[in-house]
Amino acid sequence: MKQAPMTGRIELRQVTKVYRRGTDQEVRALDAVDVKIDPGSSVAVTGPSGAGKSTMLHLIGAMDRPDSGEVEVDGERLELMRDRQLDDYRRRIGFVFQRFHLLPALTALDNVLAPVITDRRRAKAARARATDLLRLVGLRDRAASLPSQLSGGQMQRVAIARALIGAPRLLLADEPTGNLDSDTGKEILELLLSLCESENMTLVMVTHNDEVAAACQRTIVLRDGRITSDTRGSGG
Ligand SMILES: Nc1ncnc2c1ncn2[C@@H]1O[C@H](COP(=O)(O)OP(=O)(O)OP(=O)(O)O)[C@@H](O)[C@H]1O
Fold first, then answer.
1. Pick from 108, 181, 183, 94: which is nearest to 150 by CA?
2. Cβ partners under 8 Å of residue 148, min gap 6
3. Residue nearest atom 17 in ligand 1 by C-alpha distance
4. Quick one: which atom of ligand 1 is closest to the CA of 208?
5. What pLDDT, on the 0 to 100 scale, is given for residue 3?
6. In the sheet that 42-46 helps form, which strands lie side by side, from edge to edge?
7. For the purposes of burial, counting CB atoms within 10 Å of the CB of 144, is it exposed (0-12), middle (13-18) or buried (19 or more)?
8. Where does the ABC transporter domain lie (predicted)?
9. pLDDT band at 110 (very low <50, low <70, confident <90, very high)
10. In the structure, what pLDDT confidence band is assigned to residue 1 with cuts at 50, 70 and 90?
């Protein structure tokens, strides 16, 4: 059966995630969280360390499963999916991390291509798309560079191009500006927001930075696994 295209609508209903430390200690990383995220919107998730921000992102990205509650993306319940469906789902979303996670031995172009396993017939089209994406993130002439030859901002641009190779409708970013100086961080933020608009993607971004959060259309604040504030700002 052909998958319906994703639009990036997210809904969490009474989502709880509990981590166990040792035999008797429990941490409620998320505690009965309800949230709906509109397709095509940009949402910052912020709050103190340990509040549950990354946990929320991991559940939306199907990198982890909730203990209870429902995580629905485009009408599909992630916690009901089998492993193969989850693999397929993960391939249809983009991830950007604080530490870039580029493969050091591969060029920028090959890093962008890394998520797509392709046969020879499609290799040419995939390379053309990866080249287009490098152009889109402003690295047209750095395709042959290794990560060690790039600045932090350039490495994050490669990581963003890699996240887009599968044409995702949903981009999840965990502190994407956290390893960058403030000017470079601003450039990366602007790039993410403009891509979100031009590629029609939903962006959910964990950040500690208030300025970064303010640039998004909406800011969700978590504390001790609960949403304590949910505001729509002027961003976007
Ligand atoms: N794999 C794990 N095992 C045990 N506890 C965990 C695990 N992952 C997260 N936690 C705990 O769950 C809580 C929420 O963690 P999470 O990483 O979601 O917070 P965060 O808001 O992203 O924090 P930070 O801003 O420091 O990255 C924390 O108390 C954390 O210690």
1. 108
2. 104
3. 54
4. 25
5. 53
6. 93-97, 170-174, 202-206, 42-46, 218-223, 226-232
7. exposed
8. 10-235
9. very high
10. very low
Q: What is the pLDDT of residue 123?
A: 84
Nearest-angstrom CA–CA distance, 172 and 170? 7
Burial of 187 (0-12, 13-18, 19+ CB in 10 A): middle
Give whole-number Cα distances, 36 to 135, 212, 213, 221, 233, in Å: 33, 21, 18, 14, 16
Q: Assess whether the C-beta atom of 27 lies below 6 angstroms from ligand 1.
A: yes
pLDDT value at position 230? Answer: 97
pLDDT of residue 5: 57
> Looking at the domain 39-65+81-232, which fold is it?
Rossmann fold (3.40.50)
Domain ranges of the chain: 39-65+81-232
Q: What is the pTM of this model?
A: 0.92
Ligand 1 pocket member 7 (CB < 6 A): no
The residue among 127, 122, 98, 91 whose CA lies nearest residue 110 is 127
ipTM, two decimals: 0.97
Mean per-residue pLDDT over the chain, rounded: 92
